[in-house]
UniProtKB/TrEMBL annotation:
InterPro entries according to UniProt: Carb_kinase_PfkB-like, KDG_KDGal_kin_Halo, PfkB_dom, Ribokinase-like
GO terms, molecular function: kinase activity
Domain Carbohydrate kinase PfkB positions: 1-297
A Pfam family recorded for this sequence: PfkB
Protein family (similarity comment): Belongs to the carbohydrate kinase PfkB family.
Stated name of the protein: Bifunctional 2-dehydro-3-deoxygluconokinase/2-dehydro-3-deoxygalactonokinase
Gene: kdgK1
EC number: 2.7.1.178
UniProt keyword annotations, A-Z: Kinase, Transferase
Gene3D superfamilies recorded: 3.40.1190.20
NCBIfam families, per database record: KDG_KDGal_kin_Halo
Amino acid sequence: MTDLVTFGETMLRLSPPRGERLETTRELAVQAGGAESNVAVGASRLGVDAAWLSKLPNSPLGRRVTSELRSHGVSPGVAWTDPAESRVGTYYLEHGGVPRGTNVIYDRADAAITTAEPDELPVETLTGARWFHTTGITPALSPTAAATTTALLRRAGGAGVTRSFDLNYRSKLWDPAEARDAYAALFEHVDVLFVPRRDAREVLDRDGTAVEIAHGLATDHGFETVVVTRGDEGALALTDGDVYEQPVFEAETVDAIGTGDAFVAGFVAERLRGGDVSDALEWGAATAAVKRTTDGDLAVTTRAEVASVVDGGDEISR
C-alpha cells in the first residue's frame, strides 16, 4: 500500500560547476528537481512508500526524470505523452556567493504537466493511501494544472486521505493577488498547511507573529495543522489549539535548494510513522539540515543519519 502520494512538475536542473558562469561554462550537471517529487524522495529515503503523479513526454529526458526518482525508491505514476506535443521543463542554477548570490533561470513553458488532467493519471493510487501532498507551484503552471490539483485534493479527501499543501509561492509564476485568490479556493480541501512566514505576510496578507498567523489561518480555513516556517528562527506548528516550536539544527550549507521540501518530507514521514506534531517538527528540521549538506534538490539521506541529528549527535554516522 502506498503511504504518500504527491502531484506536481519535476524539471531537469542544469548547473555549471561552482564558480563558473552560465554564459561561459562548458559543463552542466543534470539532476531532477521538483517540489512534490523532492518531498516524495525525501520521505522515501526515510522509509515511506511514496508515489509521484505527473505528466511527461515519452522521451529520453522524460525517462531521465522517472529513472532518477525510481533510484530513490519513489514509484512514478506518469501520464506519458507524445514528445512532439510537449516537453520537460528545465531550470538553470548558477551558484554564487556574496555579493553576487545564486541565480535561477526557468525554462518551463508548455511543459507536459500544464495539460495534465485527472483521467490521464493513475488516480487509483490515492485509494488506500494515507497522505496526499502538493504545493502552490502546481496550480500556477496553467488553468488545467490548477483544476487537476483541485480534483486530486477533492478525491483524496473523499478517500479519507490526509491532504497537505505547501504554499511555496513563486513570484516568477504569478503575482501575490492572483496567487492569493487561487490558494483561497484550494484551502477548503487542505488538512495540513505549510507556509513560510514571509509568504503568509506578503501573499496571504497576514499580519502579526507566526503564532498569530497560524491561529488566524486555522480559524479562517479550518486546517487541522498549520506549520509556519521562519528561516533561521526555525518553525512552529499549531494543532488542536496547541503550539509547538522547533529551532533549526546547525548545518554547513553546500546547497540550500530543496531545504523546504526536505523539511516537509521529514515532517510527513514522521507523522506517517505515528509520531506526534512535535516529533514531526523535529524530524522535519533534522532532514532539512542534512539536505543542506548535499548538492542538488533531493534530500539524499537515511533514517539513521536524520535520527543522529535528532538525537543530538555531533556527527552524522560514517
